[in-house]
What we know:
3 helices, flat
Amino acid sequence: MKKHYPELDTVSQVLEVIPHRQCQSVANAIRVCNDQNTPLTIKLNAIALIFL
Length: 52
């Protein structure tokens, strides 16, 4: 998995520890969008889950 910004892994790990559903969705979206090999439709799906 090739990353745009490897530092964002640390940010997503910190957000995942916070016991709030929205923070966990944001952490997942950061990980998915940071992956260069993930298709655009999957990235958009991860972002849409933040708002649900």
